[in-house]
Amino acid sequence: MDLGLQRVLAIETSCDDSSVAIVNEEGIVETLVLKNQDVLHKDFGGVVPEVASRSHSDWVIPLIEEALIQSGRTWSEIDAIAVTSRPGLLGALMVGVVTAKTLAFSLSKPLIAINHLEGHLMAGFLTEAEIDRNRLRQSKLSYPFLALTVSGGHTQICLVHDFGQYQVIGKSRDDAAGEAFDKFAKLIGLGYPGGALVDKAAKKARESGKYRFPIGLAIEKETLDFSFSGLKSSAVRLLADWPQDRILKEREILAHDFQEAVVEALMIRLRQAQQQQKIQRVLITGGVSANSRLRSVAASWAESLQLELFIPHPKFCTDNAAMIGWAGIEKLKRGQFSDSSLSPSAKSLPGDFLES
Ligand code: KG4
Ligand code: ZN
Q1: Contact 58, 40 (CB under 8 A)
Q2: What's the CA-to-centroid distance between 209 and ligand 2, angstroms?
Q3: What's the CA gap between 150 and 99, in Å, rounded?
Q4: Which ligand is nearest to the CA of 47?
Q5: Cα–Cα distance measured from residue 58 to residue 319, given in angstroms and rounded to the nearest whole number
Q6: Average pLDDT of the chain to the nearest whole number
Q7: What is the radius of gyration, based on Cα positions, of the chain?
Q8: What are the Cα distances from residue 45, in Å, to 4, 40, 185, 190, 288?
Q9: Ligand minimally distant from the alpha carbon of residue 285
């Protein structure tokens, strides 16, 4: 029995995934449920904010009910309600925040506000209930560590000194890596969201290195910043006068070579940051960390230098409430609660991240 364990019910609605999870203080995800909106946005080639908010409103309550049923937990076993309050789409965040506030105050439980990017950093601490039952738990992430967060909205390298102490040492000056994948996928007719589809297509490529895509800021060795806009423009220029059938014929090779360029752009900065900071523990997180090529290149690099590398299970890489739940547990332990004035914010708040 685990009567003494604290647990948090977490809600994530910052973009286009409605998700609810119950996470306990051992970092075990007791349940994670998710309603993905890809089908609603795919005809538009990107997330439509109003459509996203409406779908979150439809799904958030059924998902909370499902999470409780699946885990067999009752409200009396939930110690706090955590919710993503920033950054993200304002209307989408609003649905989660209003729901969490209503639950917290009607059930007299603490309300905990989480920064979505902090959530991605916390994904490295999660373990699935199933894995834990089978005693297959790998070594656990601990502070301090170096983190590369690569998602649809952000690409940044942080020094994570401790919970709540995140020092940004490099970030994208323009597009995020996931955004580059999504725009490229649209260009070669793969659909939305593109990252996973490029990953899949790249595996089928018959040759490699046929197309050269530039790596942004490659010659600037003084910075840990990224740039992905040149990569996208070069793809637009390359394909400008190609007929559809040629794109179709070359699609897998194009996907492969583009993916190589993104992965290399990320790895150049990660290697550089690790050397500079001389830190042995590294986390790669965010939606793009589900990329199979990035995972294998990073694993070989870590092995060659005997680094401790953590990349979450793919279901904890892309947006999910479990990562918000672990951040919630950390704040619950510290008594860092919000009150009824909590409101969503499209951007991170000053102090969420320390700029170096
Ligand atoms: O973290 P996330 O779910 O949402 C944001 O916080 O933005 O990241 C979504 C991004 C999308 O751009 C998606 O195309 C990308 O992650 N992504 C991938 C893969 N799976 C998701 N990119 C490359 N390869 C993948 N396998
Ligand atoms: Zn995210």
Answers
A1: no
A2: 31
A3: 28
A4: 1
A5: 18
A6: 94
A7: 20
A8: 47, 10, 10, 10, 18
A9: 1
Q: Which ligand lies nearest to the CA atom of residue 151 in the structure?
A: 1
pLDDT band at 138 (very low <50, low <70, confident <90, very high): low
Pair type for strands 165-171 and 354-355: parallel
State yes or no: pLDDT of 136 exceeds 80.
Answer: no
Q: How far is it, in rounded angstroms, from Cα 73 to Cα 79?
A: 11
The pLDDT of 237-259, averaged and rounded, is 97
Cα–Cα distance between 152 and 17 in angstroms, integer?
12
Which of 107, 98, 103 is closest to 342 using CA atoms? 98
Residues near ligand 1 (Cβ within 6 A)? 15, 151-153, 178, 181-182, 193-196, 199, 286-288, 290-291, 318-319
Nearest to 329 by CA among 20, 22, 12, 4: 22
- pLDDT the model gives residue 169: 97
Residue 24 tokens read as: 């306990």
Question: Is 133's pLDDT higher than 70?
Answer: no
| Entry pTM | 0.95
What is the tens place of the pLDDT at every residue in 171-209? 999 999 999 999 999 999 998 889 999 999 999 999 999
The length of the chain, given as a count of residues: 356
Q: Which atom of ligand 1 is nearest to the CA of 262?
A: 23
Q: Residue with the nearest Cα to atom 1 of ligand 1? A: 287
